[in-house]
Amino acid sequence: MNIHHLELFHYVAKHEGIAGAVRNIPYGIQQPAVSAQVIQLENDLGATLFQRRPFELTPAGVELYDFIHPFFENLDSMGGKIRGGVAQTIRIGASGVVFREHLPNLLNAARKEYPGLHPALRVGIQPEIEQWLLANDVDLGVTVLGTKPPTELKSEKLIELPMVLVVPTTGRVKSAADILGQDRIAQTLISLPQNEGISRTFQTELAARKIDWPIGMELNSTDLISTYVANGFGFGVSVDLPGERKNKGVKLLPLEDFPTVTIGCLWRGQLPPVGQTLVKLLQAHAAGL
């Protein structure tokens, strides 16, 4: 018997079907691949291990699952025991603001439970982070939660943030209505890419209000948006981020009655224990903001 085939069958049996297995396997694999390899296991054994619809283990499947379950369930704890303090890696994708203003203290707190913690950090925005998770390039993402995140990803809401317009402090604009009420908005809109959650939410609301203000400058961080607004290149759209160091050359104008933006955690499959600890720390931190 192939050990990898046994591992896939264990996930299928534990999560009662191939679809459930794919959602919880901690690495990228598609349903057809799981199905084909479990069929190969059944062929090797000369026995059907489970009924597909509705899902139910056969007597042979129950016997095999009971035999392999203790081994696969205890792998993580045995690995931790053997490592005994050796570096434990967690790969995290998030924005520069999250890494700079919020994560350092939380990683230090996690080190109390995991002294060998070694985080690998990757700066990005929502579409990039989702793709990194799907490609198994990161373990945990902290980013905007879209209205329809990929079905393979799990999520945990952290905080709702209000949207704002970013304008130069030297200008005469006093409210967002001063801008959005114009017949034709002449100022360049500086925004995150149009497929990113903040930008998409803003443009959807503009369309609902029959306001035409296309993106004129796409940047990949809210920091850069503030920088280019402060230098007179246009007005920006962003969110009011707690703890963010404000650029002295800009001011934030609340976008009243606009939808809020949800920030949360994303991951695929089963998070390692250190990842679960970080999610709990992030939840507690967000609740105090």
From TrEMBL:
Membrane among the record's keywords? no
- A Pfam family found in this protein is HTH_1
- Gene3D superfamilies documented for this protein: Periplasmic binding protein-like II (3.40.190.10), Winged helix-like DNA-binding domain superfamily/Winged helix DNA-binding domain (1.10.10.10)
Instruction: Note the CDD domains from the entry.
Output: PBP2_LTTR_substrate
Q: Which UniProt keywords apply?
A: DNA-binding, Transcription, Transcription regulation
Cite the InterPro entries for this sequence. Answer: LysR_HTH_N, LysR_subst-bd, WH-like_DNA-bd_sf, WH_DNA-bd_sf
Question: What is a single cellular component term in the Gene Ontology annotation?
Answer: protein-DNA complex
Top-rank lineage group of the source organism: Bacteria
List GO molecular-function terms, semicolon-separated. Answer: DNA binding; DNA-binding transcription factor activity
Pinpoint the HTH lysR-type domain residues.
1-58
* TM regions (residue ranges): none
Which family does the entry's similarity section mention?
Answer: Belongs to the LysR transcriptional regulatory family.
Question: Which PANTHER family is this protein grouped with?
Answer: HTH-TYPE TRANSCRIPTIONAL REGULATOR CYNR, TRANSCRIPTIONAL DUAL REGULATOR HCAR-RELATED
Name listed for the protein in its UniProt record: Transcriptional regulator
* Species assigned in the record: uncultured gamma proteobacterium HF0770_07M15
